[in-house]
Amino acid sequence: MDVKIGIVEDNPRTLTRFSKAISEHTGWQCAFACSRLADAMQQIREHAIDVLLLDLGLPDGAGIDLIPFTLQRQPACQILIISVFGDEENVIRCVEAGASGYLLKGQGDDDLAEHLQDLLNGGSPMSPQIARRVLKQLRQYASPAPLSGNEPVSVPTPNDLTGKELEILKDLAIGHTYSEVAANLHISLNTVRHHVKSIYSKLYVNSRTQAINTAARLGLL
């Protein structure tokens, strides 16, 4: 079954490029492509989608409003922000609203297919600057709460992760893609994926954002 992807982007050339990248990928289908908030809301009402590519600056409203609108109707949909807005307020608001990833325009466009695959594999693609803003926010809550005595014994600790897993986790935390991690560490893409699955298992998480959050609380980043 094809992965159905919706696009909301007000720049016609970018919209065309994204649509083309999706249509050329085997197993992916562009469910709709529009440039206005009102049109996007109508499309989301009418079409079930697996992923929404979302720009924040739309001519008739704020793109961020589409995040809760979409998730209320399609909770399983993953939302990937691709925007020129990289300020901390927009980033945190989008993440808190339920966005699964956040890329700055001009930094993730050419690797859209790879970022989408990362998202579909359970990752949270982020540009390096965005990842740093998220980490900054997470570190404000990095001090673990006191244990009440009722928690399970199997709490992850820094020693649970191997040296290679820590290297990979740190690369992912600053926004590197799986391919970039593989190149940086001189290992194969499949090896990176194997280590990521191990990291998720050891930290009891199932996404990059959750892994970064947990790692920050444990003092690994």
Overview in brief:
This protein is α/β, with parallel strands linked by helices. It has helices spanning 12-23, 37-46, 66-73, 88-97, 112-120, 128-139, 163-173, 178-185, 189-203, 208-217, and strands at residues 3-8, 28-34, 51-54, 57-58, 61-62, 78-83, 101-104. Residues 143-147 have low confidence and may be disordered.
Q: Which SSEs are present, and which pair or pack?
A:
Elements: E1 3-8, H1 12-23, E2 28-34, H2 37-46, E3 51-54, E4 57-58, E5 61-62, H3 66-73, E6 78-83, H4 88-97, E7 101-104, H5 112-120, H6 128-139, H7 163-173, H8 178-185, H9 189-203, H10 208-217
Parallel strand pairs: 1-2, 1-3, 3-6, 6-7
Antiparallel strand pairs: 4-5
Helix pairs in contact: 2-3, 7-9, 8-9
Tell me about this structure.
The protein is built from ten helices and seven strands. Helix 2 packs parallel to helix 3 (66-73). It has helices spanning 12-23, 37-46, 66-73, 88-97, 112-120, 128-139, 163-173, 178-185, 189-203, 208-217; strands at 3-8, 28-34, 51-54, 57-58, 61-62, 78-83, 101-104. Residues 143-147 have low confidence and may be disordered. The radius of gyration is 18 Å and the shape is globular. Strands 2-1-3-6-7 form a five-stranded parallel sheet, with helices on both faces. It has a two-stranded antiparallel ribbon with strand order 4-5.
Order of helices and strands: EHEHEEEHEHEHHHHHH
Q: Major sheet: order of its strands?
A: 2-1-3-6-7
Tell me how many strands there are. 7
**Intertermini distance:** 38 Å
How would a textbook summarize the main sheet?
5 strands, parallel
Q: In percent, how much strand structure appears in the residues?
A: 5-15%
Q: Gyration radius, to the nearest Å?
A: 18 Å
Which regions contain 5 or more consecutive residues with pLDDT less than 50? 143-147
**Strand pairing plus helix content: what structural class?**
alpha/beta
Q: Can you give the mean pLDDT?
A: 83
Task: Provide a count of the helices.
Answer: 10
Approximate helicity band: 40-55%
Shape, per Cα inertia axes:
globular
